[in-house]
Amino acid sequence: MATNPAPKRPRIVIIGCGFGGLEAARALRGATVAITLVDRTNHHLFQPLLYQVATAGLSAPAIAAPIRHLFRQQANVTTLLAQVKRIEPALRRVLLSDGSALGYDHLVVAAGSTHSYFGRDDWAPFAPGLKTLDDAFEIRRRILLAFEAAERETDPDKRAALLNFVVVGAGPTGVEMAGTIAEIARHTLPGEFRNIDPASARIVLLEGGARVLQAMPEHLSQRALEQLHKLGVEVRLNARVAAIDAHGLEVQSGDGSASANTNSYRIASPCIVWAAGVAASPLGKQLAQESGATVDRAGRIVVQPDLSIDGHPEISVIGDLAAAQSHVPGRAPTAVPGVSPAAKQMGRCTAANILRRLNAQAGIPFRYRDYGNLATIGRNSAVVDLVSPLGPLHFSGRLAWLFWLFAHIYFLIGFRNRLVVLLDWGWAYWSFARYARVVTGITPIPPVDRQIDT
Amino acid sequence: MATNPAPKRPRIVIIGCGFGGLEAARALRGATVAITLVDRTNHHLFQPLLYQVATAGLSAPAIAAPIRHLFRQQANVTTLLAQVKRIEPALRRVLLSDGSALGYDHLVVAAGSTHSYFGRDDWAPFAPGLKTLDDAFEIRRRILLAFEAAERETDPDKRAALLNFVVVGAGPTGVEMAGTIAEIARHTLPGEFRNIDPASARIVLLEGGARVLQAMPEHLSQRALEQLHKLGVEVRLNARVAAIDAHGLEVQSGDGSASANTNSYRIASPCIVWAAGVAASPLGKQLAQESGATVDRAGRIVVQPDLSIDGHPEISVIGDLAAAQSHVPGRAPTAVPGVSPAAKQMGRCTAANILRRLNAQAGIPFRYRDYGNLATIGRNSAVVDLVSPLGPLHFSGRLAWLFWLFAHIYFLIGFRNRLVVLLDWGWAYWSFARYARVVTGITPIPPVDRQIDT
């Protein structure tokens, strides 16, 4: 009764289960392959709503789905919770931090990005960024504990300093964070404190460039700026951070026109959020060293049109870790932005190219379809910049906010989460309450200087 | 235009916002007093459902309400997030860990209880108990990461050991934990792993006494035992823990009849939950030393019939920290059990007695009204022991489970939370899915011995 053993299935290892890795694994459903999906967390995180966890509007499980639950019905996927230590392209294997190794016939590296402090990693403890759930909990803790510390503080100067909130960087995350902190201070907390007025909190949004939301058309930046002002956010453009410590930060500001107009000042604050820069996962550098791939200034791996690495057709790099270009026949290639729709599209493209390669076909070049850009500022305010067949479509205000809301809920993974998020938001909208105001652990609020901001 | 200053309001300080402290503060609504409510967390925790957070069925915000939000409309309450360092009865003040002091005219100590390892505090890192949200996250992490580690493990013995779960203590919490871990293993996770069968997990419930749920009538203990067996929980009665380390625990077991029948064995396990004992908050001991109050063997303060301390009518102790008696005219006093309805009733009694004391009236003795006892074991199984005017009412199984469910949802604080919990459970009931399977941080699973359990 002995038969020949079944031909061994090609082993595909995918590192990272963000938007790129998730989509690549999904697009391989039905393929006769053995996929191992490695992530150092047990959940796929819907990062566009992470700021809501940081600002106590959503609980963590509402935007985090267990990876192995998502793939329970896709039998060709094995999920491993593990940290990747290094990639060995010469041996075609991935080393995990527990010492074990995963061999592969094709490798997809979708390890994403982390914060960049532009070489000042010593600022990290004083100004956490927002990439993981742990980051979100830490920022939530700092926001809520700052109000708690101010309620206990009897010195008026110290109390005022405790109510300074600073967000560095006015990209989508920075704008969302600043707008939502302002909402908490002006709408959620008033009436709950006896010694302070939470509405007196200062929310400062610092931006190194000349406008907020620089990826957006200029008039939408202007709209966003107006909406931020309406929420009571102090926006400081052309303002660069010179130093951050446990008590606050130093800002150098100029109007951008003449260097003589530069001045420098200090803002005391116990709660600084870093939304200024991202850097590719360190895995990129390690892989580039061993594979001979090129790395760009941001640490991303420069990929071929089919998203593989030069000289290594069996390795694809996708998502924020890839410096990819979009290829449209008859046009010059254009750079692909580091946004989640691009990561998803790269996931699908790389899955198709893996299957083509297994069939000895040449890969197809990646083409990025840009559907536009959204950013929300707070309750009833957002800006939308859509690419439509009829030309660009721009709008802002309440309609844009509703569009943003339903687009985000639509793209949330899994019906359960969509329902929960919709209910949480419905509740928050009508009551102004924020549901997830839980702080766990006991973390002392860092001491704060007297307010010497000028 | 100068007028006499308004008479100063009596200052009431309440330490702890569990069931007792919350109820005391609420019962003083409308009183002309200045209440300061101090808690070291920012939330009131609905502890009866904490095991659901630990077993990934509920998110933390579903059972934790921000204290200052609960009291936003009660103007005589100031909420402080602070840790109490010590009580100074001679100076009538409470010292906080930030060095500040709160003077009081009346003090209510409702600091609750913590785990007791019966003098073996060195076991704590290997067998966390379940009192706070942080405890619940730690236990959730250990349960879920044990399955993850087993999926990665290739050695069959080690893999089996990783799937051993041990709960120590078969009171209500231990029974709930063991039943729910069994549900996760048998119903939630199967189909999601490729290298292990989660349903093969062993769930062991160790109990030092001769039956589970010893506070219940004997035949209900028997019903609970049967329901545990049906869920696949191994219940070991008359089993005492002799040692716990990072790799597992040593058990001494006998049938309780003859010492010759005692034997000793080891269970290897990465996930041990401690549900065996509680001890009064250490604040009790400190207060007793300075006030001359008596402390019982469990570290609780022996209180007067009106819940004050002997010689200190201006200090009340309520909830789990109080060794209180119930006084019914014409009957001998009976001990009050450490359950949440008793804490709430003490909170209301002490509020009434504070108002009487401010009016120079004598306090009324505390009378505990026992409405009965509930415990759930898992899906569709619970035991109910009600005290009714018609005599005791006992039932078990699905009806008891529904009763338990609605009783718990009814007592949850705030409509928002009730709705969320009901939806989460409705979803979990129909889908067998568990919503909150998020593990944050990266905690290595402790190494596990080969399974040498005999």
Sum this structure up briefly.
Two copies of one chain form a homodimer. The first copy, chain A, has 454 residues and is of the alpha/beta class. Helix content of chain A is 30%, strand content 26%.
How would you describe this structure in keywords?
disordered C terminus, 26% strand, FAD/NAD(P)-binding domain, 4-stranded parallel sheet, globular, 454 residues, 11 helices, alpha/beta, homodimer
Describe this protein's structure.
- The structure is a homodimer of 454-residue chains.
- Chain A is of the alpha/beta class and 454 residues long.
- The first copy, chain A, has 2 domains: 11-40 and 82-115 and 279-358, FAD/NAD(P)-binding domain (3-Layer(bba) Sandwich), CATH 3.50.50; 128-276 and 380-431, FAD/NAD(P)-binding domain (3-Layer(bba) Sandwich).
- Chain A contains 11 helices and 27 strands.
- Chain A has helices spanning 19-27, 50-54, 67-70, 133-152, 156-162, 172-188, 218-230, 282-291, 340-358, 398-411, 415-431, and strands spanning 11-15, 34-39, 43-45, 64-66, 77-81, 84-88, 93-96, 101-103, 106-109, 113-115, 164-168, 202-206, 233-236, 239-245, 248-253, 263-268, 271-274, 278-280, 301-302, 308-309, 312-317, 322-323, 325-326, 334-335, 372-378, 381-388, 391-396.
- Chain A has a 6-stranded mixed β-sheet with strand order 5-2-1-9-21-20, with helices on one face.
- In chain A, a hairpin with a 7-residue loop joins strand 23 and strand 24 (334-335).
- The longest helix of chain A has 20 residues, at 133-152.
- The model of chain A is unreliable at 443-454 (pLDDT under 50).
- Chains A and B meet through strand 5, helix 4 and helix 11 of A and strand 5, helix 4 and helix 11 of B.
